[in-house]
Amino acid sequence: MVNEHIQRTKYVVGDFVMSSLAWVCYNCIRYLMGAVHGTYSSLFQFITSQNVLLGCVAFPLVMMGVYVLSGYYNEVFRKSRLQELFITFWSAVVNTLIIFFIALINDVKAPRAFNYEMLLILCLLLFASVYSVRCVITSFTSSKIKSRKWSSRTLIVGCGTAAVAFVNKLNSMRDSLGYDVIGYVRIPGESDAKHNDLPCYDIENVESVCRDNNVEEIIVVPTKNDSQMVLNAINCLFPLQLPIKTTPSRNNILLSQVRISDMQGVPLVDISGSNMSAGEKNIKRLLDIILSILALIVLSPFMLLVAVAIKLDSKGSVIYTQERVGYHNLPFKILKFRSMVENAESGNVPQLTADNDPRVTRVGRFMRKYRIDELPQFWNVLVGEMSIVGPRPERRYFVEKIQHEVPSYALLHQVRPGITSLGMVKYGYAQNLEEMIERLNYDLIYLENMSLINDVKIMVYTIKIVITGRGM
User: Do residues 263 and 284 both lie within one domain?
Assistant: First the structure.
C-alpha cells in the first residue's frame, strides 16, 4: 500500500487548491453580478486586489479546519463513496456559512432572494470543486486496491479452520479488498488448521511479529465462538495501536458496540475504535483540548490554594501519581491531588478506599467529597492520555481481575479513559471488586451509546454532583 501520509497529503493539497480556486471563481461571479462594493475598473483589478488575494489563502485554511473536524482525513484508503458525498456536502454548507459571517455579510443587499442566490452559488462551487478532486483520488485508489496493486500487510489472529477459510475467500475474490495476509496468530485454546501455507505465530510474540513484518492491519477470525477467549486475545492487540477488525458472527458480543467497516465482499467489524463517527471523535478531542486548557488556567489560583492546604494538613507530596491502564490497554501515570497519608498503599496488593478510611486526610476527605482531587487530571486530558468523559481507568491488578469475571471489560480500551464517566455519576466510587463490576455495566452502556450529546449530559451531572458534594 502507498504510504498513508502521502495519500493523506494528496487529499489535503487537493482540497486546499480547489477551495482556493472556488473562492476565486466565486469572486468573479460576485463582480459580474454586481455584488461587489467599491470602485474597481475591471474584473482583473478586483481579482488581484489585496482582499481577494488574501482570501485565496486565508479562507482555504479556515475550510481545511472544517475538513479536518469532519473526519474526512481519518481514513484515507477504504472510503465510502456515499459517506464521502455527504461529508463533502455538509462541509461545503458549513464553510459557506463561515465565509458569509466573516466576509460577505456586508454585501447583503435587496432583494433578499439575490443574497440567497449568491450563498447557493458559493456552496455549489465549494462542493463541486472539492468533491471532483476527492472523487478522482478515491476512484484511483479504489482501482489500485481492487486490482491488487495496492494492499496493506495484514495479520490474521486465529489459526483454525475459520481463519484459513477466510484467507482463501479473500484470495479467490475477483476484486481485492486490499489485504495482503502475511501470517496467522494462534488464539490460545484453538487448534491449527491443516492446509495452511502461511507461518503461524504465538500471540505472546505478536508485537515483535508486527514490528518485524511492518504489519498495517489485524483481522481477528476465531474458529471457536468463545467470547472470553476472543476478548482476551483482542486485549493483547490493543497496545499495538493498529486497526483491528473481526468477522461478524451470530453471537458476536462485539457487534452491539462497534460499527461495520467494510460493506463490500466480506463485511468486517471495526473493534479498534468506538462507534462514534470520525467527525465526532475529532470534535470530542478538540473540545477536550480547549476545555482542559481553560480549566487549568481558570482553576490555577484555586488549585494553588488546594496545594497549600494539602501541604499544611499532612506530610508528603501535593500531587500523587499512580499507574493506570488507559487507551489501547497502554499504561499511563494518572495525576491526583494527594488525599491520603503518605505511603498509604505500601503493600504489594492494591487497596480500594472504603468509607471512613483512616488513610484519608482531613483535607483529602473534603477533596474527595467535591471531586477536587481529580482536577490535575486535566493535564492528562491535555496530553492525550485521558478524555474529560470516558470510562474511569483502573490499575492493572484490578483490570485483570475484572476482565476475568467480565471479559467484555476489554472493550473499554477502545476509547480514552475519562475524568468523569457514566459509572461515576450513576454509581460513584467502588469499594470492592463486586462494586467495580457493577459500575462497569454503566461504562459499557456509555461505550455502546457514545455521542457528544451524552458527553454533555454526563458533564452536567458531574457538575451537579460536585456542587452538591455527593462525591463520596
Answer: no
